[in-house]
Structures are given as structure tokens and as C-alpha cells.
Amino acid sequence: MPSKGTRIAAQRPPYLRDLAQGLERFFEPRREDCPWCSGRDLRRRLRTTDLIQRKPGSFTLEQCHGCGHVFQNPRLNAQGLEFYYRDCYDGLNERAMERLASSRICRKLYRARARALVPFGRPSRWLDVGTGHGHFCSEARSIHPTTRFHGLDRGEGVEIAARTGRITHAYQGSFTDLSGQLAGRYDVVSMHHYLEHTIDPRRELAAARTALRPGGHLLIEVPDPQCLSARLLGRWWVPWLQPQHLHLIPLRNLRGALEQHDFTIKAVDRREPHVPTDLVAAALNLLNSALPGEDLPWLPAAPGRISRLTRALAYLSAAPLLLALFGLDTLLAPLARRTRLSNAYRVVACRN
Which stretches are transmembrane (predicted)? Predict the structure, then answer.
């Protein structure tokens, strides 16, 4: 395989051609009402940039004063989503995402999600929507050894998940488009940090109801935009994840939507889904935004020697602080899980 530097150089011309046409074409017109409740009392929650990939552009999250829904406005269109997702989970960053998904913290979170379904029986078929490379399914098999795990995602990672044996069947494409052929086939549908990426979360809930058999369970985990961490850390709070997160849904709104789609809420958990990385991740966001960029294909040219050295020395100098913040996140996790600092919530619902 060619080196990363060679791949970056090869992708620079197409990225620069995209950027030369302007960023405005990546956005829909700004909407004047809330996509959740149609309320018109909208307030800016924050304005930020792509803090992870550092692709150019700025993005606004607005909040509905009536229902509390937080959404990207103006929202990326299909072209924009393709541009900003490119090389994030696959391509250039595939190996980095593979390492993250295989980390001890992620594996612990995966097992906790799988255990959330234990009180509701042993499912025969489980569809994980937004499965990526299938790491959740691989870990969940240790909790549900007789379950057949299938995965669905838009990216090529789902095919990798099937080839590596993490899932037994792969669906590549849109869940809302594929749900008809999956009707009534599954005992469980899971959506872990998936709904916030979707254009229309309500359509995704309808698709989940279609794919589930009567009495089947839907497992959802999403960031909590009402948590105290989001307010304290502002634009550096990682779960804002602009420009990929299009909707951040308060628990009350999600509960109401599930009931409208003929689900019965069986369990709600704000404790266990908390991801104990808020402080260290915010610090990394801040550091990454302040330093010269690394070699990226959407930059006009590769950074010079001084820029690369400055970046390397800054990360080396910051390493003790980052380790301390990681330790503090871990130390504070029991407190965070019992307070409004918890940064995510989980819902288990049964299809009627």
C-alpha cells in the first residue's frame, strides 16, 4: 500500500477542485423553523469549525426555545455530507478509527450496550445500524453468544466487518431505503450514536419499527445536548462534532417520537452511556485548532518543516497535561454518571 503521504498528495488535486467551487454549494438554505416541532423561536447555540478533520468551513447549531431540539442550520446537503465524511471513517483515517474502535474504553462501552438487552431475553437476530467496522457486534457476541449479528452502514466499513467475521451479514446503503426488504426480520435493532448523524431521525425510527418483529426491541444511544458538560465546555465539547452531527435530540423529544411510532419505553439510562473523555477530548480539540495543520489533502500544500516541528513539540509538551486530564475524566466518571454532567443517554423501547 502506498504511504499516507503519497495518498495525501494524490488526493490533494480533487479536494482543491472541490474547494475552488466554493463552500456555499454544500449547504441547504437556512430554515426558519424547528425541524422537530416547527417552532419558530430559534436561538444560536454555537458557531464552530471542523475541529476533528480541520476541513474548511464554519457551522452553526441552533436550538429551538420551545422543544429544546438542537440542529445544524443551515444544514449540509448531500454534496456537503459526502465532502465532509470523505476520509473520516474510511480512506485516510480508516486505521485511526480502527484503533479507536478497538480501544479498551470503546470495548467496555460496547459490552455495556450489549448487556442493556439482557433483561429482555436472548435475541436470535440483531441488526446494528451505523455499524462501521462491526466492532460493537464482535464485542456483543461475548454477551449474546447465540445471536446472529447483522450490520448496516453507508460506508465500505460494513463490508470489512463481514469479511473479518464481526458480523454475519452486511447491508450497505441507507436504512430508510433498505428497511422495506428487512421488514419484521429482527428481534433487536440498535442505533449507537447514529441518529444524530441522520437527515431525518423520525424516518429512521419508522425504519426501525419496520425492521423489527412485533415485540422486538430498539436500542438507542445518543449524546445529550442538555448535559452540563456541553454548557461548560462550549464549542470544545466533542459530541457537537460539527459538521457531522445534524440533530442533537433531548430525551423528552426522543421519548415522544418513539411513542408516536408505537413503541413502549422499557428503560432509560443516563449513567452507563457516559463516555469519560470530556476533558481530554476538549483539550485535544483546543490544541488541534491552535496548532499548525498536519499534512492534509484539503490544504493547498503540505506544511513546511518548521510547522511540522512546532506541532510535534507542542503535542510532546502537552502530553503530561493530556494524561492528567484523562486520569481526571476517569476519576470523575462516577460523579458524572450520577449528575447532569453525564454526556449521553440510552433508551430501550419495545415495538408494539
Answer: 312-336
Q: Which residues of 5-20 are buried (b: 16+ CB within 10 A; e: fewer)?
A: eeebeebbeebeebbe
Q: How far apart are CA 342 and CA 227, in angstroms?
A: 6
The arithmetic mean of pLDDT across residues 144-168, rounded, is 96
Q: Residue written as cell 453468544?
A: 145
Which amino acid does the sequence have at 37? C
d(CA 332, CA 173): 39
Level-2 CATH architecture, domain 93-274+345-351: 3-Layer(aba) Sandwich (3.40)
Instruction: Please write down the HEC assignment for all residues of 91-123.
Output: HHHHHHHHHHHCCHHHHHHHHHHHHCCHHHCCC
Q: What is the sign, positive or negative, of the torsion defined by CA atoms of 75, 81, 83, 89? A: positive
> Is residue 191 a contact partner of residue 218, using CB atoms and an 8 Å limit?
yes
CA-based radius of gyration for the chain: 20
d(C-alpha 281, C-alpha 156), whole Å: 27
Read off the pLDDT of each residue in 96-109 and give the average, rounded to a whole number. 89
Write out pLDDT tens, residues 40-67.
999 999 999 999 999 999 999 999 999 9
Angle between helices 278-290 and 305-337 (to 10 degrees): 160
The domains of the chain are located at 93-274+345-351
pLDDT in tens, 207-229: 999 999 999 999 999 999 999 99
List the Cα angle 91/240/279 in 5-degree steps: 95
Whether 1 shows a pLDDT value over 70: the answer reads no
**pLDDT, tens only, 276-312:** 999 999 999 999 999 987 899 999 888 889 999 999 9
